[in-house]
Amino acid sequence: MSDIEGVLVNGIPSDTDPKVMENFGKQLAKTISERLIRTPREPTLRMSNAGKPCERQLWYEINEPDKGEPLRAETFMKFLYGDILEELLLFLAEVSGHEVTGRQDEQEIEGIKGHRDAIIDGTLVDVKSASSYSFKKFREGGLKEDDPFGYIPQIMSYLEASKGDKELTDHDKAAFLVVDKTLGHICLDFHSKGNLDVHQLIKDKKKAVNQETPPERAFEAQPFGKSGN
What we know:
The protein is built from 7 helices and 7 strands, in the order H-H-H-H-E-E-E-E-E-H-H-E-E-H. It is α+β, with helices and mostly antiparallel strands. The strands form 2 sheets. It has a 5-stranded mixed sheet. A two-stranded antiparallel ribbon has the order 2-3. Helix 1 (2-10) crosses helix 4 and helix 3 packs across helix 7 (198-210). It is globular, with a radius of gyration of 19 Å.
């Protein structure tokens, strides 16, 4: 963190290889084009969504996607802005002297595919942008107790799938590199592998989304305005 902050405060040397900037520009352009030039794609189970705790939600996303409420322009803008910030974080990590490899390499577990963000200095890293409220959870270690989007199973899936990579030297833990998209703070949130059986998790999710009817509701209804959301 201190290295990235040093780049932000002091800048980079004027004699930095121009190709570093050019490569960042190309990667940024690639990210934006991939988000805006949309080709129809069949919804499927991936490492990025397999960790979601609600299997009923996952079933509907994959089996009846057309019944969902259409995303609004501001939602697409939020996603695009987040993707740009995540590319920026990886760039800052690289120009601050750290080794960034394996970017967006495709991984596979139990027939389910996904793309990890990167390996930094031998550690698998997933990059996130977050609101100030959500950022606090990463910074203070609260994700272990409150992980509604299944981020920890997601990153552990990437870690398990990457264990054969020579670039990966830390096989026991992975980290979220997170930026507060409102205030600009950054943090690293490390998580150990623990007892999570990623292969069994994937098998369970595949079984849930392949059944003919939606799984039972996993959560009780909350009175509107009382749940905090």
